[in-house]
Amino acid sequence: MNLDLFHDARSGRCERIGPSAFVLRGFALPWVDELLPAISGIEAAAPFRNMVTPGGFTMSVALTNCGALGWTTDRRGYRYTDTDPATRRPWPAMPVPFARLAHEAAAAAGFAGFEPDACLINRYLPGARMSLHQDKDERDFSAPIVSVSLGMPATFLFGGHKRADKAAKVQLYHGDVVVWGGEDRLRYHGVMPLKHVPHPLLGSTRINFTFRKAG
Ligand code: MD3
Ligand code: FE
User: Fold this and answer.
1) CATH code where residue 194 lies
2) Of all atoms in ligand 1, which is nearest to the CA of residue 63?
């Protein structure tokens, strides 16, 4: 039995953090037993790696992808590709429970019919962070983005439409799902340096996956 299901009083709540942005507390908890082995399978075929940004910085967050398209970066820029540049093979297929979780979470937040073609999987170790950015490498901004957090908690930064806009802080815990769409889709966002608070299942790791309609 998954004790996390009953662990905290937040589970099952929906918090609205923007006009079209919702945190579904604990929404992914019933799926964790399917998600973790699926992540291991993806990682075996397409290992996590620290990519380099166009500016020449190595990201502190390691990433991999599954689905038809995967997000990558190197000195030449950010883009979606249908193959893993490290192996030159297609990204691993999106596991069925991944796609179903994304579809159900989007529907619960009011976005019916979400069918992602890309899933970016981020792995944070203590100290890893993501600076404020917009997600704008996708072709169609009318689809929402669904994100699932597992493992160590993180402080998520939810900014505005300009980089300088003040960002709200939102704690994200194991099992939380966030859905962003509509006018919130292009808001700046980021993650504060991860504190070391080992998690019973994932140890000193945070995994975040974001489902996107990229192509
Ligand atoms: C808000 N990842 O991979 S997920 C990313 O926790 C990314 O790994 C963070 O930002 C993480 O690009 C945050 C949440 C997220 C994703 C897309 C958004 C938040 C968003 C798009 C618009 C506004
Ligand atoms: Fe992002």
Assistant:
1) 2.60.120.590
2) 3
